[in-house]
Design brief:
The chain is 70% helix and 0% strand. It has 3 helices and no strands. The model has no long low-confidence stretch (mean pLDDT 88).
Length: 105
């Protein structure tokens, strides 16, 4: 008896062309590391501006901003090694959050 079901059911050959493969995720992770560098510089600039204009003491949000930038870099390196969509998304979210957290101080 034969069935009419396709023989490649569940095969990776049926992945749509818009799906992110490991090469695309690694490229996005590499570009994300550039974003992390830019956001780290922006966090430093916000911190220095806050130090000059205010009392010169960084608060908890400045510390959280730098932790966020460091964790974004760690997520980016991990995404280069093991390309996962969640790692790349976490990298971008943490990178953008870094200067925003520093601005909250």
């Amino acid at each position: 008896m034969t069935t009419d079901t396709p023989s490649n059911h569940g095969s990776r050959d049926t992945v749509p062309g818009t799906a992110l493969n490991s090469t695309n995720l690694r490229v996005l992770a590499g570009l994300g590391l550039l974003l992390v560098a830019v956001c780290t510089v922006a966090t430093m600039a916000v911190t220095l501006t806050d130090a000059i204009s205010d009392d010169g003491v960084g608060g908890a949000f400045v510390t959280a901003g730098f932790w966020s930038a460091g964790l974004a870099a760690l997520a980016g390196v991990a995404a280069l090694a093991v390309p996962r969509r969640t790692l790349v998304a976490a990298q971008y979210v943490l990178a953008v959050a870094a200067p925003l957290l520093a601005l909250m101080d």
